[in-house]
Amino acid sequence: MTVIHHVRVHTSEEELPREGQLAWKIAEVATDPVPVDADVVDMIINRVIDNASVAAASLNRGPIIAARAQALDHPVSTGGAGASIFGLPSTGADAELSSPEWAAWANGVAVRELDYHDTFLAAEYSHPGDNIPPILAVAQHVGSDGAAVVRAIATGYEIQMDLVRAICLHRHKIDHVAHLGPSAAAGIGTLLGLETPVIAQAVAQALHTTTATRQSRKGEISTWKAHAPAFAGKMAVEAVDRAMRGQTAPAPIYEGEDGVIAWMLDGPNASYDVPLPAPGEAKRAILDSYTKEHSAEYQAQAWIDLARKLHGAHPELADPANVASIVLHTSHHTHYVIGSGANDPQKYDPKASRETLDHSIPYIFAVALQDGGWHHVDSYAPERAGRPDTVELWHRITTAEDPEWTRRYHSEDPNEKAFGGRVEIALADGTTIVDQIAVADAHPLGARPFARENYIAKFRILAEPVLEPAEIERFLELVQRLPELTVDEVRELNIVAAPGVIDLSAAPKGLF
User: Fold this and answer.
1) Which helix (H) or strand (E) holds 398?
2) Measured between alpha carbons, how far is 227 from 112 in angstroms, rounded to an integer?
3) What pTM does this model have?
4) What is the Cα–Cα distance from 325 to 396, expressed in whole angstroms?
5) Are strands 421-427 and 83-84 parallel, antiparallel or unpaired?
6) CATH number of the domain at 298-437, please?
7) Range(s) for CATH 1.10.4100.10 in the chain?
8) Dist CA 230 CA 223 (whole Å)
9) Which of the listed CATH numbers 1.10.4100.10, 2.40.10.10, 1.25.40.620, 3.10.300.10 matches domain 3-288?
10) DSSP annotation of 468
11) pLDDT by residue (tens digit) across 258-287?
């Protein structure tokens, strides 16, 4: 049965034993040798496929090119065999490997760039698939088998999602990767079979080094949006390394008088109730997460599906001459983060960056309404964003917070938790169209929930332009045997681009 760990700020005069600190409790979950349930194993395989899908589609995007070049400028460290980098050979004479922290960096950027992998939203929001790159990089470096990788990923998901259930970061303008550093460190601790005191130090160090403001997701959103979780993964690897060498971390990092809660979150009088698995309880959090059918912020997923439906039922809506206004009544989070409530003029700017447009629900709804769908490249193209009729329709779309949709967004009941809302379209002739959607079609409670065949189909669609057919089949055969993989097979758990797809000589030069 889940244990609720009550977390509050302690003054320096109050002695909080390390065994009572949240970092220690997290470490205890990481060291619990409970078996991984079969349905959890199945979902972990799905998410490894999902990560590879979106990484394949990103291989030649600017942030990935730069991060990959940085990783290749750092040779394999002396403690292991090195880790693979998405797109490059990982075995044989032409293998291109890097040190695990830099492989975690490069692969983390590749996974995150398109905003197209899994999500979990509660008190905070997250992309728990970001745990996989650092865990897999360390596994390849030290020689872990597939069963160890599965246990580690189950831990990473569990810890991040449990923190996300309880502790809101965005209210205080702290970026959500502050929950990822600790979870990745815990997952790596599980992978390596480290002792509780060592993992607790790594968790605390990872939190301390990955707490940053969320300006990375505000205004003119930069390429750092893709780098932020990769940085957290890289810091987690380094935190584990330091902890293994006997180095300690600020403590208590969550509960201290000058700690994260007191000065970065709800303040010295704050408290949180963090749910963690009881000893012997299976780590099943991953089953509560959900992936994306569309390459856009998760709160946009259901709205894309509703726009797709309206496009078919009311094709006249594609012409702005027929539309007086469109109001999306939705949750507080959607309104203030990706809606007009953010008060970001960039969300209505046809020349805004891709990173900004995928955080603009007015733009996304306009394009999906006109096109009847969404494409991870074409829907963000400058010529698409600048099309005059799209701009005209886009500028007639606003959002509004609806208390009921906010309540459902935060509901702990999975049967009523919702990420959509109600649309009210005022037509030029004076009539109105009203419709609503609660969850995306691909959500477990949606019209077409994602299953293994959907993950495989997504991988094929995104990989076919950059991977040879034989490589696609090789990866799919290998990854679906994940719990049984040998050490050598884990090192082959990578995707290798077709000849000519990646030009390493064209990468930008930097300091290294």
Assistant:
1) strand 397-401
2) 8
3) 0.91
4) 5
5) unpaired
6) 3.30.1330.120
7) 3-288
8) 12
9) 1.10.4100.10
10) -
11) 999 999 999 999 999 999 999 999 999 999
